[in-house]
Amino acid sequence: MDVFKAVKLTESVYWVGVIDWAIRDFHGYSTGRGSTYNAYLILSKKITLIDTVKKPFFEEMMSRISSVIDPSRIEIIISNHSEMDHTGSLPETISAVKPDKIYASPMGSKALSAHFHWEEDPIEVVKTGDSIDLGNMRIEFIETRMLHWPDSMVTYLPEEKILFSQDGFGMHLASTERFDDELPLNILKEEARKYYANILMPFSPLVSALLGNLEKMKLEIDLLCPDHGPVWRSKIDWILGKWGSWAERKPRPKAVVVYDTMWNSTRKMAQAVIEGLTREGISSKLMPLRASHISDIAAEVLEASALIVGSPTINGRIFPSVAECMNYLGGLKPKNLVGAAFGSYGWSGEAVKELNGLLEEMKVELISEELRAVYVPDEGVLEKSVDLGQSVGRRIMEICGGAK
Ligand code: FEO
What architecture is domain 254-396? Predict the structure, then answer.
């Protein structure tokens, strides 16, 4: 008996992916709502499987495939993206199915070889503009290099107007619902934004270029099928629009204040900074690092115009959690931010200067030179912290053209 059933998306396309209800840490990204690894089965004359799933879920995927056809009937496997959440079970799938052809992009072929060290490379390379005949349908390939790996590509099935977009337009969300319109919009927005921030933000110029290309190509898309999260059918324009605005990073009157603290001195300063921002009418989020995951901070920064960071000095350095956060955010290359640093210290006080240096490396426009408290902030320092929040707030309003 097949325990797991495939989900019919159209007359000839089925979802045969898996649901990872338990995952809470996806290579350092907190996945509070779990995830899915989507694979798709096309019942064309030459039956085709698009992507596979994470290795421990191989049996579940095979069970879903078996609920529709005998898996040995699969003639073609297409690997749109080599990361192991989509290829971990590729070798087992190849052994079980024995397909005639396996396709990947040129960089995909190299990446798969480097992952699996094949004795005999089974991959046939396809490039942008290539298409293959599935008997009664065809499938077209579009490479999307560095979105988000060098190997990434998407595939288009014109007969069904389906774009299989690998990680593109995905989100980490475990659910029994397979379509966008079966899920609440606030959850879609939250998880899509977090996914974009943590996976795509560094590649935003390439996202803008891809969206422009898709428009030029005038692809008709009835279904947008990513490798994570729901299939888009009702909100395709919505998710394309969101990606467009995230890639563009339009300034918004919003600030994120991140801090850690040892004896509550930096916390008090952080709260005063928030007070200043609030007085200027800026929507602000205070994110204590003891209570906020760095991947959630990234999601907030994606839509913010300011990043203000507080750290005590410990052993002449930035506090470790703050350093980790800055290292992570720096790699994500957020653009168009203003910001500042602050913090308390006992006798040396290097953290604020060091933080300013890191913010400058991130091309953040610094609003203040240095705001520090010796041991415990007095009234004067707290007033200066409020002033700092107000100065940043005023600069945000200038950038945003006064729009609240
Ligand atoms: Fe879902 Fe980049 O792997």
Answer: 3-Layer(aba) Sandwich (3.40)
